[in-house]
Amino acid sequence: MQIFIGSDHAGFEGKKKVISVLKDLQKNDKKLNFIDLGTDSKIKKVDYPKYAKLVGNKVNKNKNNYGILICGTGTGMNIAANKINGIRAAMGYDLYSAKMSRIDNNANVLCLRSRDFNLNRYTNIIKTFLKTQFSGIERHQKRIDLIHKLEK
């Protein structure tokens, strides 16, 4: 499993915490690999759509790729990522949203907010998102197919 991570300046501190979570998960899952695509500073102001695009393009290269995007609220990254064909980004507010975004929507990018980042909560959200599989139920696949048609 390849995970691509990106953040803007407001999400930089949260991204460092996400990386610590992924390093802990790697101890029990040697197939888990992650790549940090930036940004590299909380000081230099950057535009979050650029990082959403970097992550989205990498996620699209393989169906086993996932992305995690972090900005101040998570919303900007979520909106930007969902503009990329093939990306199904979801907000990870809680365990339920993370789990159901995978089960019903086959989400491939998790968007998190850096402001009010709670390490324990986000550790569980990230674990849930990564371990939960798409249900493959016909009605859900049909809806995903309809979304793909919207992208054309």
Structural account:
The chain has 152 residues and is an alpha/beta fold. It has one domain: 3-Layer(aba) Sandwich (Ribose 5-phosphate Isomerase B, Chain: A), CATH 3.40.1400. The protein is built from six helices and five strands. Strands 2-1-3-5-4 form a five-stranded parallel sheet, sandwiched between helices. β4, α4 and β5 form a beta-alpha-beta unit. α1 crosses α5, α2 crosses α3 and α4 packs parallel to α5. The longest helix is centred in the first third of the chain and has 15 residues. The radius of gyration is 14 Å and the shape is globular. The relative contact order is 0.18.
Q: Which runs of at least 5 residues are low in confidence (pLDDT < 50)?
A: none
Mind describing the biggest β-sheet? 5 strands, parallel
Write out the strand line-up for the largest beta sheet, numbering strands in chain order. 2-1-3-5-4
End-to-end separation in angstroms reads: 28 Å
- Briefly note the structural class of the backbone: alpha/beta
Domain count, please report it. 1
Helix content: 40-55%
User: In CATH, what is the homologous superfamily?
Assistant: Sugar-phosphate isomerase, RpiB/LacA/LacB
Helix count, DSSP H or I runs of 4 or more residues = 6
The first-level CATH class name: Alpha Beta
Strand content: 15-25%
Mean pLDDT reading: 97
- Indicate the CATH topology: Ribose 5-phosphate Isomerase B, Chain: A
Number of strands: 5
Radius of gyration: 14 Å
Label the CATH architecture: 3-Layer(aba) Sandwich
Would you list the SSEs in sequence order as H and E? EHEHEHEHEHH
Give the overall silhouette: globular
